[in-house]
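[09:14] KT: can someone run the structure on this one? pasting the chain below
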Amino acid sequence: LEHLSDRYPAQLSGGQKQRIALARAMAMRPEILLLDEPFGALDAKVRKDLRRWLRSLHDELHFTSVFVTHDQEEALELSDQVVVMSNGRIEQVDTPLELYGRPDSRFVFEFLGQVNVLSGKIRDGVMSQGDAWIRLPEGCENDDAQLYLRPHEVRLTQAASDQAHLPFRIEAINLIGAEVRIELKPDGWECEELWEVGISHTEFNARQPQRGDRCFAVPDVGHLFCEHAVEPKTLEWR
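[09:31] RB: done, structure tokens below
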């Protein structure tokens, strides 16, 4: 920031002020740097630039940071180890990859990004609720359960498959950057929140889905939380 050396603090942007604050803290060469939501008041692009900058500083100077944030993407991108807390209680401690891919609880799953949920009963290897059902891999016992699926773990089709009958009506279509996000309302069964599935612009242009269209979800990977099970079970249909 040498080109800004003649400016007064009030003439600096939020991102520039945060860089100077971090430089001031690091001038003492601390072994541990404590950061409490340092990028919270900045716009999205500046936050992303500063995350990349801070990560490169870690790689160069090899200091340790304790970084407090409510931004899940920020935590997963910056950290070597993430601690998820709820009401002062530690829910899970793990690497970002394990935390996102194998959460220990419903809270951790829901906290780390968008999630689609099917609640139902498992009977003879089939989980069902209303008009919705899905065949589960072997080893799933009869129980009340919830199946959690990330948006990228679900595909949309125009007809049900042999493994799943999950009917929806398209509620909204949102073109967000490189992805098209489809919001889905259950058709013939119940869910507390809308489902969300992302598709590419190529798929969107080929299919031209419209609000109100009927479609079906086909899962590739799911995470099963049974009422009487201690740990969730990761399932694959690929």
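[09:33] KT: thanks! The two ends are 51 Å apart (CA to CA).
[09:34] RB: yep, looked fine to me
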